[in-house]
Fold this sequence. Notes:
The structure holds two protein chains of two kinds. Chain A is built from six helices and one strand; from the N terminus they run ααααααβ. Chain A is mainly α. By secondary structure, chain B is α/β, with parallel strands linked by helices. Chain B has helices at about 60-75, 85-100, 130-135, 140-150, 150-160, 170-175, 185-195, 200-215, 235-245, 260, 265-275, and strands at about 5-10, 15-20, 40-45, 80-85, 105-110, 220-230, 245-255. In chain B, α2 links the parallel β4 and β5 (about 105-110). Chain B starts with a strand and ends with a helix.
Amino acid sequence: MAEGTIKQLINAPVEKVWDSWDGFPNSLLSWATIGPKNLDDGHHKDLTPRTPHKAGGALRLMSSSRNRSHFCQNLGSLRESQVIN
Amino acid sequence: MGHQMAYVDEGTGRPVVFLHGNPTSSYLWRNIIPFVTDGHRAIAPDLIGMGDSSKPDLDYTYTDQAAHLHGLLDALDLRDAILVLHDWGSALGFDWAAKNPDRVSAIAFMEAMVPPVMPFPSLEAMGPSAELFKNLRSVGVGEQMVLQDNFFIEVILRDLGVAMRLSDDVMDHYRAPFPTPESRKPVLQWPREVPIAQAPKPAFDAVTGYIPWLVSSDIPKLLLHVEPGGLIPPQAVDWLKANMTNLDTVFLGPGSHYIQEDYPDQIGAALASWLTRV
């Protein structure tokens, strides 16, 4: 299906969303710019966390949910598998 | 194909199928599944090459992934199923639902591959994201980033995709399926399957194939969203509210992409409540 057909079908101003979409978090994009440069230099990339969006501590941690770790520890006993033919 | 697909299967009742994306596994849903197993059967597969499923020598294209996952869903003979979808698991789930509308009765999704963001009309139209995707899709550069440096696990998942700091124990679970560069092949292939400028064609055809059904189908849908998000930014939420039939939305708060790690209780509670109404 051609893009024009999709736009017509869903009848919406797709371009307007694109105009204002910034993509993935800027910090991720910063790394993407740094990565190839390091590759060109033959250096191992520095994977030290670059997390300016987390630095402010504005996001609340969901510590209570960590108590459910017993579930993931038991996943093995719950697992099934099927052979796909 | 003859490959093993691993899946969590817990509880009894109407099936609720949880589908993960890149570079995660059914482990992503570990804190959310317990909210729905009282009265429902929770099924959470690991995609082929990921989690505990087999890691055969495949190209890991969308076509490969769909053949295995859809084969599993068909083999489970699901009826009246509710899908809970994230990332590439959303494309696979929407695709299966559009082809099996009589088997699916409701869909919840988050950070998913939906319009108007998907499909990407061109690399240039992606703005600042273009550089990242150009690198991931460049032979040699993408291999270095993903196969050698484990970019998706150590950067996107650990550092950029979550608001909270993932513990070493949690990170080890995510690292476990991908101990070697060779094992990370599916993780590299996923960004190369993202439909940009109508390529690659099978993935583009899949996404554009399910969009009309997804937007217009009157089955109940639930969007769980964050701000700014990665795949569903606020502008896209507004668009979906205006254009998607029978859509409920729940705003969780600030977040990025792997929102199951930041908001498991809120997602679980919202799902449990929604399940009583669909």
